[in-house]
Amino acid sequence: LRKALFKVELSVRDNKVVLEPSVEEIEAEFVGAIDTMVKNINSLTSVDVDAMSLLNLEPRKLFDIGNNNEFYAEVDANIKKTRDYVSEKIHGAMERPVELAAFFNEYVWLIQDSVEIYILNFVESTGDPEVPPSLDHYKAELSKIDDAMHALNEMAFKEENLGFTQVNTERVKDLLIAR
Question: How far is CA 85 from CA 21, 38, 39, 132, in A?
Answer without folding.
Answer: 20, 16, 19, 59
